[in-house]
Amino acid sequence: MPSKLAVLTDFDGTITRTDVAEAILEEFAPSSWWEIEELHRARKIGTRESMVRQFALVRAKQADLIRFVDEHVEIDETFPDFVGFCNRRHIRLEIVSEGLDFYVRHLMRKWDLPLPLRTNHAVFEEGRIRIEYPWADATCTLCGTCKLLRLFQLRTEGFRMAYVGDGHSDLCPAVEADVVFAKRELAELCAEESIAYTPFVNFADVQRHLRGLT
Ligand SMILES: [Mg+2]
Q: Any idea what the CATH number is for the domain that residue 116 is in?
């Protein structure tokens, strides 16, 4: 593999040990959020529609959500080491997330891991959350942040592309990536779609595998 390698990674459930958006919905939305999630997992609605409908159910102030996130969300404790590994090896590492910026940016600041990131934008107004999509692809209404678009942009710059993820919104980039690391739903989807992938538990596994490729 050429030395110019980029790693795109999901945030929720990949850098964090659990899915932050789902934890917020579980705590602050009525249980009907799960019916919307099932439509999403059955691929009957896109990630964008799913997020809008689910977060429209949340009634909370941003400060309360941040407090909840601080109390409940844990990082994959091997991720900071992985960031150092990528820096030393000159591997480009970026986050592409279908989560919401207020908690992704808050956590990355708290953990002192300043990485480039693309994520959806939450607007808090009158006790409700409206979601904007600064990183959407204009030709697709299914997703918010288009993870595939970023993969193509970096490939155009000459990078070989590795992708790390755990969920349904990771399938598009997994189809195109040169190397895929998958767990949970993404691993199931890759198996269903006959996409070659390396299973992983944490970023120490990803690092071990990439060490042999760079
Ligand atoms: Mg995820």
A: 3.40.50.1000
